Amino acid sequence: MPTFVIDTNVALSVIPDDFLEKTSNLVQSLVDKPMKYICVHIHPEQIMSFGGISTEPCAQMSLTSVGKLGLDENKRYTAAIMDHINRILNIDKDRMYLTFHDMERMNVGWNGNTFA
């Protein structure tokens, strides 16, 4: 169920056509869960500021998963994801946040049931 969401003020026209595919592959490789559970969602062209500046690219991201999150994992995920976003969307690493949400199986529904 890993879900990666990014809110950014970057224009839709700047986002490459293969962004979702490449980002899905990255998330899948990091959390080591089947691709059929990976969800990536981008909200471009958001009205956002970071550090009081709204004219520069910025992002707020979240990674939600049932397990596979923790101190060491989150540090590794942060480095890999921020490198990826910086390289593809040209957002400086000091202009984005990544938050993590470790969900309990009973609190995540899929395919008409929960994972519990």
Gyration radius (Cα, Å) is 15 Å
Spans of at least 5 consecutive residues with low confidence: none
What count of helical segments does DSSP give? 2
Question: Which percent band covers the strand fraction?
Answer: 25-35%
Helix residue percentage: 25-40%
- Largest beta sheet: strand ordering: 2-1-3-4
User: How far is the first residue's CA from the last residue's CA?
Assistant: 12 Å
| Average pLDDT for all residues | 97
Number of strands: 6
What is the oligomeric state here?
single chain
Q: List the helices and strands in order.
A: EHEEHEEE
Structural class: alpha/beta
Describe this structure as you would to a colleague.
The chain starts with a strand and ends with a strand. The longest helix has 19 residues, at 71-89. The chain is globular. It is 28% helix and 25% strand. Strand 1 (3-8), helix 1 (19-31) and strand 2 (39-43) form a beta-alpha-beta unit. The chain is built from 2 helices and 6 strands, in the order βαββαβββ. The chain has a 4-stranded mixed β-sheet with strand order 2-1-3-4, covered by helices on one side. Strands 5-6 form a two-stranded antiparallel sheet. The relative contact order is 0.24. Helix 1 (19-31) runs antiparallel to helix 2 (71-89). The model has no long low-confidence stretch (mean pLDDT 97). The protein is an alpha/beta fold. The chain has helices at residues 19-31, 71-89; strands at 3-8, 39-43, 59-65, 96-102, 109-110, 113-114.
